[in-house]
Design a protein that fits this description.
Elements (H helix, E strand, L loop, with lengths): L3 E12 L5 E3 L8 E8 L1 E6 L2 E6 L2 E5 L5 E5 L6 E11 L2 E3 L5 E4 L3 H21 L1
Antiparallel strand pairs: 1-8, 2-7, 3-6, 3-8, 4-5, 4-7, 6-10, 8-9
Length: 127
Amino acid sequence: MNNKSLIINSCGVVSCTPWWRWDTSKTKFDDYDLWAVFKGKGKMKVNDEVFHIEAGDCLLLPPQCTILGENSPQNTLLTINVHFNFLKDGKPTFDYPLSKHRISDSYFFKKILERIVTSYYQDCNEN
């Protein structure tokens, strides 16, 4: 059977401090990270590709990538992240590369991601 599905491993909302830095060079994650920016500006280097990021940007970060990130101390980031795996026949599949997208309706997208975060933690508390 060729069933495809998705499982959320963790998620959260992060309001970055002015001195926020993200460095995964020593501790990489084993799943995908949907990383969406709703406030602020910054820069991320993912493997060898540099992205200038701001409100309305969304990145799909693949497993095992090296990330170096920072935000503007005067315009700090507010992000929502969702760590997940794509599953094919019940096993993780890694068919999707790094990508950056500009979200045209960031209000709507933010509400969807907030519902995912809320639902995830409600499920965690029930189990």
